[in-house]
Design goal:
By secondary structure, the chain is of the alpha/beta class. Helices cover about 40% and strands about 20% of the residues. The chain has a single domain, classed as STAS domain (Transcription Regulator spoIIAA, 2-Layer Sandwich), CATH 3.30.750. The chain has helices spanning about 25-40, 55-70, 80-90, 105-115, and strands at about 5, 10-15, 20, 45, 55, 75-80, 100. The strands form two sheets. The chain has a five-stranded mixed sheet. The chain is globular and about 35 Å long.
């Protein structure tokens, strides 16, 4: 699976460079999320621009990311394609995950979340 991570001061941005997140790559994506969490990443912004299709295994992987980072920090998706957004909406995961249009918005969500949790400047 093609996956890149750029680390910044208050968050990391991961980019999935795969057209499909399905049963063949979902376990690896879950593993990447778990490794990042173990490495101390608390706020993860996931760039979904390249992803054109997600199956139930892929949605499950996204939920693992949401759980791994959502408790201590923030998990935000951005650049979600229309087709993938439709699948997320049908499964009602848009009600439990934070999804925004662009990277700047995602960074703002992380900042606001940190302020709300009293973590600003940590």
């Amino acid at each position: 699976m093609e996956f890149t991570v750029d680390k910044y001061e208050n968050y990391s941005i991961a980019k999935v460079n795969q057209e499909k997140i399905d049963s063949t790559v979902a376990p690896e994506l879950k593993s990447e999320f778990m490794n990042l969490a173990q490495d101390g990443v608390t706020n993860l912004i996931l760039d979904m621009e390249a992803v054109k299709y997600v199956d139930s295994s892929g949605l499950s992987a996204l939920l693992v990311g949401n759980r791994s980072f959502g408790e201590a920090g923030t998990f935000v998706l951005f650049n979600v394609t229309d087709h993938v957004m439709k699948l997320i909406s049908i499964s009602q995961l848009d009600k439990v995950m934070t999804i925004v249009a662009g990277q700047e918005e995602a960074a703002d969500v992380v900042l606001l979340s940190a302020i709300n949790k009293g973590q600003a400047g940590e």
